[in-house]
């Protein structure tokens, strides 16, 4: 029996969570869910977007599946996603992006993996006002942070039979911070002689990904570039509805889609549950339930290829739950 913390989250979170739970139940994998409110939806009951019970539950179960959480723009509470990643030291954010036949996209056969450092960089949100008319943000990059994320990327490449790892940076301008990231990457690369290392400046990387994505494989980068480049990759393979993610640390792992809470679609069961379903597939692989993971992924790919029971973003009119039911039917 796997005991797993479940955070349905805000906005569209509860809809895509219900669809994903239905599919996981059909795999036969014994999962006991421990469900908690987090984010905006926790505030009325707990007076905070991150009740202590959420962290306690993840620390106890070591694995969590999470829907998106709303973060107010500009003012209001700080991101609970960032807080969870920091509190649990989930230093590696793995974001695969691959094309599934049947999806209308400008590209075919894309198979990219973004490995995003998850705890440092400008994303740590260490910033303040300087008087009323200026603001400063501090970009934190440490040797330890660079070492562990670069090792993670090369180890991922080795385990998954990938051929190369590209470091993405802006070390020409940010010579200290991104310079440190790049020099650690080059040192770490020497421990993995079977994997080809290379590096690209982030702006050029974005252009190259749009023009020739087939040239790239695993990419590793500081937090903020990872945030942006992984949405770009999601766009290459058909949109945010299809992009899964995993936040992995030494002791805990939290699986969540790349997309946010899309508040305008909340409660309509309209959006695509695929990104959360594929996040759950990553979770099944992480807990060594490979066979169940393969069955879900194959059935989902078949539903997408058929194109009959898919959500609006894939050109269909099915509800999220109808798509999940079609996946369950294909699982046989
Ligand atoms: P978003 O990802 O929520 O939505 C942007 C657009 O992408 C949507 O309007 C919709 O058109 C499309 N989209 C997103 N998910 C989809 C799905 N599953 N199926 C089909 N289409 C989908 O981004 P946003 O509007 O910038 O952010 C909304 C909120 O989500 C913000 O509060 C933000 O902070 C939060 N957010 C949370 C996470 C997270 O919890 N990990 C990640 C990103 C954004």
TrEMBL record:
Gene Ontology terms describing biological process: isocitrate metabolic process; tricarboxylic acid cycle
Enzyme type, top EC level: oxidoreductase
InterPro entries referenced in this protein's UniProt entry, alphabetically: IsoCit/isopropylmalate_DH_CS, IsoPropMal-DH-like_dom
Pfam families assigned to the protein according to its UniProt record, in alphabetical order: Iso_dh
One Gene Ontology molecular-function label: magnesium ion binding
Name of the protein: Isocitrate dehydrogenase (NAD(+))
UniProt keyword annotations, A-Z: Oxidoreductase
Taxonomic superkingdom: Bacteria
Domain Isopropylmalate dehydrogenase-like: 3-327
Organism field: Dethiobacter alkaliphilus AHT 1
Keyword Oxidoreductase: yes
EC number: 1.1.1.41
Family per record: Belongs to the isocitrate and isopropylmalate dehydrogenases family.
């Amino acid at each position: 029996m796997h005991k797993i913390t479940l955070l349905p989250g805000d906005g569209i979170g509860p809809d895509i969570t219900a669809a994903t739970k239905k599919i996981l139940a059909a795999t036969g994998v014994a999962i006991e869910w421990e469900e908690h409110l987090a984010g905006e939806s926790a505030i009325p009951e707990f007076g905070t977007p991150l009740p202590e019970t959420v962290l306690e539950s993840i620390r106890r179960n070591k694995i969590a599946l999470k829907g998106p959480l709303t973060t107010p723009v500009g003012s209001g509470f700080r991101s609970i996603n960032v807080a969870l990643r920091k509190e649990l030291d989930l230093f590696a954010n793995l974001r695969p992006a691959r094309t599934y036949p049947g999806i209308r996209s400008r590209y075919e056969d894309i198979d990219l993996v973004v490995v995003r450092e998850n705890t440092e960089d400008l994303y740590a949100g260490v910033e303040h006002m300087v008087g009323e008319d200026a603001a400063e943000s501090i970009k934190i990059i440490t040797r330890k942070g660079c070492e562990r994320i670069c090792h993670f990327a090369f180890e991922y490449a080795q385990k998954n039979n990938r051929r190369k790892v590209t470091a993405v940076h802006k070390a020409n301008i940010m010579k200290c911070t991104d310079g440190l990231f790049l020099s650690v990457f080059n040192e770490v690369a020497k421990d993995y002689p079977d994997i080809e290392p290379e590096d690209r400046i982030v702006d050029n990387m974005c252009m190259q990904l749009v023009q020739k994505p087939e040239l790239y494989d695993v990419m590793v980068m500081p937090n903020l570039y990872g945030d942006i480049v992984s949405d770009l990759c999601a766009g290459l393979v058909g949109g945010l509805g299809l992009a899964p993610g995993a936040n992995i640390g030494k002791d805990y792992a939290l699986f969540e889609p790349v997309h946010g809470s899309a508040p305008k679609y909340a409660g309509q069961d309209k959006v695509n549950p695929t990104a959360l379903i594929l996040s759950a597939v990553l979770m099944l692989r992480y807990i060594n339930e490979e066979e169940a993971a393969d069955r879900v992924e194959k059935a989902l790919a078949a539903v997408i290829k058929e194109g009959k029971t898919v959500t609006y973003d894939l050109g269909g009119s099915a509800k999220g739950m109808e798509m999940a039911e079609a996946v369950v039917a294909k699982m046989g």
